[in-house]
Amino acid sequence: MSRIDELIAELCPDGVPHLAVGDIGAFVSGLGGKTKADFSGGNARFVSYRNVYNNLAVDQAANDFVRMRDGERQNELRLGDVLFTGSSETPDDVGMSSVVLEPPREPLYLNSFCFCLRPADPGLLTPGYSKYIFRSARVRREIAKAASGVTRFNISKGRFAKIRIPVPPLEVQREIVRVLDLFTTLEAELEAELEARRRQYAHYRDSLLTFSPRGVRWVPMGEVGEFIRGRRFTKADVVDDGIPSIHYGDIYTRYGVAADETVAHVRSDLASQLRFARSGDVVIAAVGETVEDVGKAVAWLGDADVAIHDDCFLYRHTMNAEYVSYYLQTAAFHSQKSSHVARAKVKRLSAKGLAKIAIPVPPLEEQARIVSILDKFDALVNDLSSGLPAELAARRKQYEYYRDRLLTFKEAAA
Description:
Layout: H1 3-11, E1 18-20, H2 21-24, E2 25-29, E3 44-47, H3 49-54, E4 65-66, E5 82-85, E6 87-88, E7 97-99, E8 108-110, E9 114-119, H4 127-133, H5 137-145, E10 147-149, E11 153-155, H6 157-160, E12 164-166, H7 170-208, E13 217-220, E14 225-229, E15 238-239, E16 243-246, H8 248-253, E17 258-259, E18 264-266, E19 276-277, E20 282-285, E21 287-288, E22 297-300, E23 306-308, E24 312-317, H9 321-327, H10 331-337, E25 341-343, E26 347-349, H11 351-356, E27 358-361, H12 364-382, H13 387-406
Parallel strand pairs: 3-8, 16-23, 17-22
Antiparallel strand pairs: 1-12, 2-9, 3-4, 5-7, 5-9, 6-11, 10-11, 13-27, 14-24, 15-18, 16-18, 19-23, 20-22, 20-24, 21-26, 25-26
Helix pairs in contact: 1-7, 7-12, 7-13
């Protein structure tokens, strides 16, 4: 019997009380009355949407600042506050939580797109327990049910307040936190090692793709290939079985350097309206949220032609496709690309700008040799079926299994 089982048998043998969120505390809103200008050159820290979404515990050192005026009254965050994202593009992502685990060292505020649950009794929930219970699978499912929307989903606080969570004795909470903290520490160590390996890989890749101007030809990409924009299709056109397709958003999230199968398909009746990449073409995302992101690419190596979205270019060329895709990851490419990005709210690259970017063009045999070397490094740091990525994925599954098991209790009779 584990220490947690012993504590449950001793302290709550007949079950654990389940309380409605609304009975645990009150909802506190984030920043109000702020304009876009207030988030430039600010003098006070606030917790961003991204901070809440990405972290179990609030990162108080994050460099997010807002301008606060003398005498301005806004809700300051406190130890034990549970923060939630108020909206998202999917119901499964809405209401992600993060907890203030330490007393704020200075006034700390919350983004207006988030809200806060402030427990009324600090002796009811430990901050560490809140950190895990609101990210457990069962509670996440209930939070998703409290969301409503069509293209963007928002939390209904009325329904959210009715969600019930188990509240075991504090001794049980602390032991659960101790066990789960061990898992998250091990996971963090693996993540740090993987990040170090990725930096090492990026350095080696850039070194391997750095050529002396005298040793190899540097040629504008437009002289050794052409850029062809894709044709528009929408989410409504996506189907389970149809024409293989590449959407610009998937290039950022679901593809690596090269692919021979697509992760999505569009309606077959659209064939005459679409534009297709052939095997050996490189598909380049033409838009992105940041200058750094835009221009990510995937070499298409599949046998079938693939439809590409109108926010992509296909690059048809005479080089090794994977070599081109690797080069488009390098610091040298990003340095040249920067001056060709249109810096509106959404960052864009044009075919004209891409055509001006120089690429080193060694002999095809040398290109293939470089690809062979980089493929091995890429697999070590990105392949989910082997190496550190596989170990990290297994550790996360193990953590999620134990988290959900440890946070499932028989409910005490009312």
